[in-house]
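Please fill in the sequence for the structure shown.

STRUCTURE ENCODING:
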């Protein structure tokens, strides 16, 4: 159960860093593979590729701390 505290601490630090980055960088970079629809009256941004990259990075980080 003590590992859950480490995981929550790590996630807290990750979210803190992401929050700071999003405040200073209001326009996210668009990676090829992300879906962006800009039509009159509607704007949709689906970060498909970005989500996959973030998932892989978080998986590697969490697996590193699990061992």
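FILLED IN BY: designer on duty
SEQUENCE:
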């Amino acid at each position: 159960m003590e590992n859950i505290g480490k995981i929550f601490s790590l996630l807290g630090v990750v979210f803190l860093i992401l929050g700071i980055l999003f405040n200073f960088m209001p326009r996210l970079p668009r990676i090829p593979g992300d879906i962006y629809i800009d039509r009159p009256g509607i704007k949709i941004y689906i970060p498909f590729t970005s989500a996959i990259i973030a998932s892989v990075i978080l998986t590697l980080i969490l697996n590193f701390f699990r061992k």
